[in-house]
Design brief:
By secondary structure, the chain is an alpha/beta fold. About 25% of the residues lie in helices and about 15% in strands. The strands form five sheets. It has an eight-stranded parallel β-sheet with strand order 11-10-9-5-2-1-13-12. Strands 14-15-16-20-18 form a five-stranded antiparallel β-sheet. A three-stranded antiparallel β-sheet has the order 6-8-7, with no helix packed on it. α12 runs parallel beside α16. It is globular, with a radius of gyration of 23 Å. It binds 1-O-alpha-D-glucopyranosyl-D-fructose (TEU) and calcium ion.
């Protein structure tokens, strides 16, 4: 099958935009749709095929839009429905589709449905949510479940004399997917957006929609796949779109239940096995970074093998909830540029669809905040309360949040060295990283050996080499603690991909590598060919891809 016959999302590279931090066009310090439109040429130049647009719907912005108060309105701070239609049209003219982020596991506590639900037990909207009576023995909440962002997952509403459930917190009440009337409302919303010509959906926390509260089954509940299949039948079937569900619970042995072609559910999942493997068992993301390369590459290989012949992988290291890859996995010091390229190459040349997160294409780094007052994320601030109550010191918490907190990805995109990095002419809603003078789009794009140019080459390689989208995957040197090596094979071609994950020059025992003659199609240092010898000398963070005929 030629590239042309594969669905567009298998040869395209995606780009995630967190609108609040991308580009501000009206000087209020908040990114917006006008700002995105003004940067479409930057994205066209990068070569991406679609944008995953984090929520722009009406919202009180407690969770920066992942708390929706009107599914058919654009948040005024981001613009209007006309602005949205202009974005879809102008992006399409540049060969870029818009994939919307859809948050339908929960809504905002300011959504009309919830406001009605709190007025009466008898209105139809009441059972759009999960309500429980107080426990007779304690007069307290039904159980001790904690919310992701701190506090109890149960909140009392006097007017109806019941508790409601919020997995993330009181301001994001869970939608009751067991209610067919609620599902119909959600599917109507989805079709309303699809009929506006969007390219698909990234579905927030899809693993939570089938929960069985009374048996305390919160993830991948008994009805989850039934609901996703119903969503597919009601909204996706027959449309040329891409759907990707976020699931922190998905594993290689459950992956095909979500994205196997015959399942008719979603096209891909965002799994997090390679992400939270490095999280502290007790403190989660707010503990030390426990990254271990052999574990990391084993997990990636497991997913490559699980979806080798059916389903499809998403490939990413970064999104709006995660630290900046160059700080977390690479080097944000002397080898920042080279390690950013190594991380990108070893991720992008696997089988699947790569997702670039805004700013990754120029190697933006973690925020390195020094004051609690600089943090904005509801989860970070919620966990601060929980963890300091457990005796964690404020400085220890700041150190933990600087490693893995969600604000690391949410500092404004650094466009140039002008005030506020060219993100806004106003006061930014969150501090711009002080290193913007040295790390910005204008500087990086002026460098033919910059990170942006390298990402352009990666995107082009994917589009021009069938082996990248269709070749098999085999991990090599699996136990080597320093180097990630794998090979792709398609017909008579082999692509060897290798990345040194360390800041040290090392010599790789090349015994496991098959013949090493071939053409270097991409490298992050100048290297023409690979001499056939027993050991391969590698510079710190060196990466290359070698194409050979077998
Ligand atoms: O995130 C899912 C989610 O639960 C993560 O926030 C993760 O579990 C948590 O950070 C662990 O520390 C999605 C969105 O990506 C996120 O931005 C939203 O805050 C969340 O859902 C609620 O919509
Ligand atoms: Ca703005």
């Amino acid at each position: 099958m030629t590239q042309a016959m594969q669905p567009w999302w298998k040869t395209a590279t995606g780009y995630q935009i967190y609108p609040r931090s991308f580009c501000d066009s009206n000087g209020d310090g908040i990114g917006d749709l006008g700002g995105i439109i003004s940067k479409l040429d930057h994205l066209r130049d990068l070569g991406i095929g679609f944008i995953w647009l984090s929520p722009v719907y009406a919202s009180p912005m407690r969770d920066n839009g992942y708390d929706i108060s009107d599914y058919r309105q654009i948040a005024p701070e981001f613009g209007t429905l006309d602005d949205f239609d202009a974005l879809v049209t102008q992006a399409r003219d540049k060969g870029i589709r818009i994939v919307m982020d859809l948050v339908v596991n929960h809504c905002s506590s300011e959504h009309e449905w919830f406001l009605k639900a709190c007025q009466s037990r008898d209105c139809p909207e009441h059972d759009f949510f999960y309500w429980r009576d107080q426990r007779p023995d304690t007069n307290g909440p039904p159980d001790d479940q904690r919310a992701c962002f701190g506090g109890s997952a149960w909140t009392w509403v006097e007017s109806v004399g019941r508790y409601y459930y919020g997995h993330f917190g009181a301001q994001q009440p869970e939608l009751n997917w067991h209610n067919p009337a609620l599902r119909r409302e959600v599917f109507d919303v989805m079709n309303w957006w699809l009929d506006k010509g969007i390219g698909g959906f990234r579905i927030d926390v899809i693993e939570l929609i089938g929960k069985d509260l009374d048996n305390r089954v919160y993830v991948e509940g008994p009805d989850m796949h039934r609901f996703i299949a119903e969503m597919h039948a009601a909204c996706f079937a027959g449309r040329d779109i891409m759907t990707v569900g976020e699931s922190w619970s998905a594993k290689p042995d459950t992956a095909l239940l979500y994205c196997g072609k015959a399942r008719k559910e979603v096209d891909m999942v965002f799994n997090f096995n390679h992400i939270d493997a490095a999280w502290d068992p007790d403190k989660g993301r707010f503990g030390p970074n426990l990254f271990d390369l052999p574990t990391h590459k084993r997990i990636l290989a497991d997913w490559q093998h699980a979806l080798a012949d059916d389903g499809w992988n998403s490939l990413y290291l970064s999104n709006h909830d995660l630290p900046r890859p160059v700080s977390h996995y690479g080097c944000d010091g002397p080898f920042r540029v080279r390690s950013a390229k190594m991380l990108a190459m070893t991720m992008h040349l696997m089988k699947g669809t790569p997702f670039i997160y805004q700013g990754e294409e120029i190697g933006m780094t973690n925020a390195n905040f020094t004051e609690l007052g600089q943090f904005r994320d509801i989860e970070t601030l919620g966990q601060l309360t929980e963890q300091t109550a457990r005796g964690v010191s404020r400085q220890e918490f700041i150190d933990g949040a600087n490693i893995n907190g969600r604000d690391n990805a949410r500092t404004p995109v650094q466009w140039d060295s002008s005030a506020h990095a060219g993100f806004t002419t106003g006061d930014p809603w969150i501090d711009v990283n002080a290193n913007y003078v040295d790390i910005n789009v204008e500087l990086d794009r002026a460098d033919p050996n910059g990170i942006f140019a390298f990402y352009q080459d990666l995107v082009a390689l994917r589009e021009n080499l069938d082996i990248v989208t269709k070749g098999s995957f085999a991990s090599l040197c699996s136990n080597d603690p320093n180097v990630f090596v794998y090979e792709r094979v398609l017909g008579t071609q082999r692509l060897l991909v290798l990345g040194n994950f360390t800041n040290k020059a090392i010599s790789l025992d090349a015994g496991e590598l098959s013949d090493k003659d071939g053409k270097v199609v991409l490298s992050n240092i100048t290297r023409e060919t690979l001499k056939s010898n027993e050991h391969i000398p590698l510079e710190p963070y060196e990466a290359f891809a070698l194409l050979s005929d077998i």
